[in-house]
Amino acid sequence: MKVVVNARFLTQPITGVQRFAIEISKRLKKHLQDDVVFIAPKGVIHEDLASELNVRIVGLNQSHLWEQIDLRIFLLKHNCPLLLNLCNTAPVFYSNSIITVHDVAFEVYPQTYSKKFLLLYKYLIPHLVHNAKKIITVSEFSKSEIIKFYNISADRIEVINNAVSTDFHPIENKNLQKQKYFLTVSSLNYRKNLKLVLEAFNLLSKNEEHVKLYIVGDLNDKAFSKYSLDDFGIHKNIVFLGRLSDKELMEYYSNSQAFIYPSLYEGFGIPPLEAQKCKTAVIVSDIPCFWEIFGNSVIYNDVHQANQLKDKMQLLLTEDFRLKFVIKGIENENRYSWEKSNKNILRLIKSCY
């Protein structure tokens, strides 16, 4: 048994963090075959993927307890192999490991998380980054944040970027093509800055009554502190879509005027890259991480300026202006690939032996 992968992500709904784990895991299985073993608790919800990875279900516990007790016991019984953790958390008292810290948003915006989540991560992450052999993160910005908060030497941290699945592609939808709409993906985490989009859309709709705003995402995640959307829910042209399948998401990306992602803080930001893969113009917030990942391929907006965002949405109703950023987006998205990221992880695994 050469490498064990902590596959607890198979019990979780898919966000950017789980997407990273899934795409890397599929490629590790292809390259390492029998030299990689995927271990998960009971309660797997992605059965097809578990079958593809030939996952072993071990232990009686679930969630964090499984990681700290059952997974660690399994590792100790199997001569302490190298453990790869792709989704932020890992067994605290196990040092032969590589961990992935996608961002430290909970340190920067603690008020946006539940007390339970915050207590757990404030304990886990500092211990994990100091105990692990190597740390993966997804951007140079996140690397600098980990160094700043935990006083970790830079040579222990490897930047391995996110990418977009090769399955993502533009999909025409005649019903959606008949509409003019903007799209955003969000949760009720304060740092996702959904209210800015809603305020800007309210301003825009005073002159553009036919334009709609579609909002994709889970608005019921208990990990996040919430704020009220009561002032916006009654607007007839604001539609909350909830979670969508990848095919549905591609359709909404592909036929929109633009995708808007105004986060206050991110470690990378997969959704804007997905939008670019679907040939969609993108507006993001003017924060350091996005300048690193997107360069001049997107339109930037101040995180607090709803009027400014309204003006940029207005510009994107003009086809020539919109197409300019569609082309730039395609060029940018081509810089990232899961194959490239997987090669970097294989190299990192080899360096730990």
UniProtKB/TrEMBL annotation:
Can the keyword Lyase be found in this entry's annotation? no
Question: Which Gene3D superfamilies does this one have?
Answer: Glycogen Phosphorylase B
Entry annotated with the keyword Transferase: yes
First and last residue of the signal peptide = none
CDD domains from the UniProt entry: GT4_MtfB-like
One molecular function GO term is: glycosyltransferase activity
Q: Where in this chain does the record put each Glycosyltransferase subfamily 4-like N-terminal domain?
A: 15-167
Highest taxon of source: Bacteria
Which stretches make up the Glycosyl transferase family domain? 173-320
Q: Which UniProt keywords apply?
A: Transferase
Q: Which InterPro entries does its entry note?
A: Glyco_trans_1 (IPR001296), Glyco_trans_4-like_N (IPR028098)
Protein name, as recorded: Glycosyltransferase family 1 protein
Source organism: Chryseobacterium piscium
